[in-house]
Amino acid sequence: MSGSENMILVLAYMKLKEGKKVDLLEITKELIKKTRLENGNISYNLFNDSEDENSFVMVEQWESKDHLNAHMEIEHFKKFADAVGSILAEDLDIKEYDI
Predict the structure, then answer these.
(1) Domain membership of residue 21 as a residue range
(2) Is the pTM of this model over 0.85?
(3) Which CATH number does the domain housing residue 68 bear?
(4) 88: DSSP letter
(5) What is the per-residue pLDDT across 22-51, written as a single tens digit (0 to 9) for each?
């Protein structure tokens, strides 16, 4: 990693429609497994809010913005992005942070 690149932390908040938790777990299974193998991925984890079963956050850590951008163009991410829209109660809320 060059001195000009920062590691990136991504928090992707998802608010699901009622009763869609199992659907989310199913469509993220392949995404998580394959993303963890991607070049530049440090960690990729899905967490369920302890007080709201319909609220989740995907916590991602990447070596650089370039690695994150490459992830968003890969087939398993595009497949997830196409599928998740139908089970969300609200738009994805995605925050990126330089580490």
Answers:
(1) 8-98
(2) yes
(3) 3.30.70.100
(4) B
(5) 999 999 999 999 999 999 999 999 999 999
What is the tally of structural domains in the chain?
1
pLDDT tens digit string along 3-24?
447 999 999 999 999 999 999 9
Give the side-chain half-sphere CA count within 13 A for 36.
Answer: 11
Tokens of 38: 């991607």
Three-state SS string across 3-64, please? Answer: CCCCCEEEEEEEEECCCCHHHHHHHHHHHHHHHCCCCCEEEEEEEECCCCCCEEEEEEEECC
25 within some domain: yes
CA distances from 75 to 30, 36, 50, 61, 90 (A): 11, 14, 31, 19, 24
Helix (H) or strand (E) holding 67: helix 65-71
Long-range contacts at 28-31 (CB < 8 A, ≥ 24 apart) = 28/58, 28/80, 30/76, 30/79, 30/80, 31/76, 31/77, 31/79, 31/80
